[in-house]
UniProtKB/TrEMBL annotation:
Protein name: Ice-binding protein C-terminal domain-containing protein
Domain Ice-binding protein C-terminal: 176-199
Annotated organism of origin: Desulforhabdus amnigena
Lineage: Bacteria, Pseudomonadati, Thermodesulfobacteriota, Syntrophobacteria, Syntrophobacterales
């Protein structure tokens, strides 16, 4: 009886998650967890990509405590297609395309000019309006990997200093994580386990 109840509850949860996934956008989350300085890996921040419709999207850089982004290549991403881009902070100005040290070239880069305290930031959002016939079907369509395999990068200060003082470095992403589709997969796994237990106990 308990197995039947577990199976029924799991089915309802899975159905609910399926409806949510069908209606909601599966925001892409890129963890900034690789750097070109010491430490070589860590939790440096996240970049989220959220699609509003097929021609509108938002890309948000959120930097972890202890670090700030700034200077040349403060924020960079490799856009799939073309778009008019508006940063939420006017201190971020376009550099066009260019290299992020150690992680290859990105077709969209922004600078804050320097690492003066007034030009260091913890977050910024770029609002995108697709142009030139560009359309995105899902959040994962907005960005594409560069020749080195990376989608996003940032220039940060706050790394372990050496004898020369404060150190800056570039960080980039590992594998992207889609949400809430991962919840749907978790629900699918739960209902599968419940089904197997029910089968074997019968």
């Amino acid at each position: 009886m308990r197995i039947d109840r577990l199976f029924a509850v799991s089915f309802v949860i899975l159905l609910s998650l399926g409806l949510v996934v069908g209606q909601a956008s599966a925001t892409m989350i890129y963890d900034l967890n690789i750097s070109n300085v010491n430490p070589a890996s860590g939790d440096f921040g996240t970049v989220t990509v959220e699609l509003t419709d097929s021609t509108h999207a938002a890309i948000t850089f959120t930097i972890s405590d202890g670090y700030k982004m700034g200077d040349g290549g403060a924020a960079a991403f490799n856009l799939n297609g073309t778009a008019t881009i508006t940063p939420s902070n006017s201190s971020f100005t376009s550099e066009g395309a260019g290299n992020e040290d150690g992680f290859g070239s990105f077709n969209t880069k922004y600078t804050t000019g320097n690492f003066n305290p007034s030009n260091q930031f913890s977050s910024v959002t770029f609002t995108l309006l697709a142009t030139g016939g560009t359309h995105w079907n899902t959040d994962s369509d907005v960005l594409t990997a560069n020749a080195s395999g990376y989608m996003v990068a940032a220039h940060l200060t706050g790394f372990i200093p050496d004898s020369e003082g404060n150190i800056t470095g570039f960080v980039t992403n590992g594998a992207p994580v889609p949400e809430p589709s991962t919840l749907f997969l978790l629900g699918l796994g739960l209902i599968g386990v419940a089904g197997l237990r029910r089968k074997y106990l019968n």
